[in-house]
Amino acid sequence: MNSKELFSQSSRLFPGGVNSPVRYYDPYPVFMKKGEGSRIYDVDDKSYTDFCLAFGPLILGHSHSEVIKAVRSAVENATSLGAPTENEIKLGNIIQTAVPSVEKMRFTNSGTEATMHALRLARGFTGRNIILKMEGGFHGSHDYALIKSGSGTLTFGVPSSRGIPEEVSRTVVVGQYNNPQSIEEIFKKYGKDIAAVITEPIMGNAGVIKPEKDFLGFLRDITSRNDSLLIFDEVITGFRFGFRCFQDIAGVKPDLTTMGKIIGGGFPIGLFGGRDDIMDKISPVGPVYESGTFSGNYVTMAAGIAALNQLRKMDYSSLEAKSSFFENTLAENMPEKEKFAVSRFGSMFQIFLGIDHPVSYEEVIKADSGKFMRMFHKLLERGVYLAPGQFETNFISFAHSKEELETSALKISETLKETGK
Ligand code: PLP
């Protein structure tokens, strides 16, 4: 069956035919059946250079042999044990050693769960109710995160989802990333009622926006002065630019951190962790409840251990070099009159159409989404698979070769010439 036929079946089962809205695009998404290294294969056996990489977990590329080996060996023993296992300790130790601010942690099954529990913990620990998040910041799809959010919420025009009780919305205030003044004003107004500030250290769900000057340091300072907690959502940035989190590159230590994606080696995972005294408020030792049937799943842990053990040996500077080569090749070959910007940090990048380098959410939302999707479709025809949305992030993996990056950059510039203004 081809994608069109499969879509007509999946639409009868799932809203929009998909199990996550960001996978949908007009008129129907290409159905995939296999991934290998930097390539993804559709149901018609057409292959694409994959820059979506399952929205971020696959920094080693698809189906890394060591991860597959570890998963095969794990399922010989068990699928899920619902009891503590040594595998949890192994993965926990790797993460604790690599990210010093994570003194204690809990594994969850997704980044959404991780931020949901971290925010409840922040409220439980401080005895305060208000959460400050950034406009366009995406922390998953629970009630406290779906207010002026990013990613698919922007693509589909619902940054603040329906269905969230007003009582909840009133406890979430929204500041502007890279705009200290907006944060200061909120602290002046709500001061001692703010339980936590949560932010992605690099915005990755409104394209890619890097932190300016000492914005993260400023957040550390203002939260400390007000006895609020600082939460870095490193679901995308954890282990992406080195064998550590972005906080250690920026030199800013949050109270709590959330992770996901890479640390599960391609299997469903999330994690929240941080200061010992805060984490000890979690049940069963503390009064803040959190649980999960599949949390710390035996097979996921095996995949995560294998992936991180591989990553520990990888030369991240080579990934940076490849990514920078890709960016330069793109820039050199872009049609001159085209207004575009490649926003890149390490192996994360997005191509913004119709705007110059954005430093804020306000600038990002002026980008030409329609034109981006026209480019996306033409690139699909040419065998290049970008994340389907102007407000998503693309990724380069260790498995992408320099030749493939060069070819892809040339295909992108060719496509833009055709897409025109
Ligand atoms: N936080 C960030 C920064 C994310 O990018 C995402 C997902 O893309 C999440 C949280 C939610 O993670 P998940 O999709 O695993 O629930």
Automatic annotation (TrEMBL):
Protein name per UniProt: Glutamate-1-semialdehyde 2,1-aminomutase
Swiss-Prot/TrEMBL GO biological process terms: protoporphyrinogen IX biosynthetic process
Keyword GTP-binding belongs to the record: no
Protein's UniProt keywords contain Cytoplasm: yes
Substrates-to-products reaction catalysed: (S)-4-amino-5-oxopentanoate = 5-aminolevulinate
Superkingdom, taxonomy of origin: Archaea
PROSITE patterns: AA_TRANSFER_CLASS_3
GO molecular function, one term: transaminase activity
Alphabetized InterPro entries for the sequence: 4pyrrol_synth_GluAld_NH2Trfase (IPR004639), Aminotrans_3 (IPR005814), Aminotrans_3_PPA_site (IPR049704), PyrdxlP-dep_Trfase (IPR015424), PyrdxlP-dep_Trfase_major (IPR015421), PyrdxlP-dep_Trfase_small (IPR015422)
UniProt keyword annotations, A-Z: Cytoplasm, Isomerase, Porphyrin biosynthesis, Pyridoxal phosphate
Organism: Oxyplasma meridianum
Major site of localization recorded for this protein: cytoplasm
One GO CC annotation: cytoplasm
N6-(pyridoxal phosphate)lysine: residues carrying this PTM: 261
Associated pathway: Porphyrin-containing compound metabolism; protoporphyrin-IX biosynthesis; 5-aminolevulinate from L-glutamyl-tRNA(Glu): step 2/2
EC number(s) given by UniProt: 5.4.3.8
Name of the coding gene: hemL
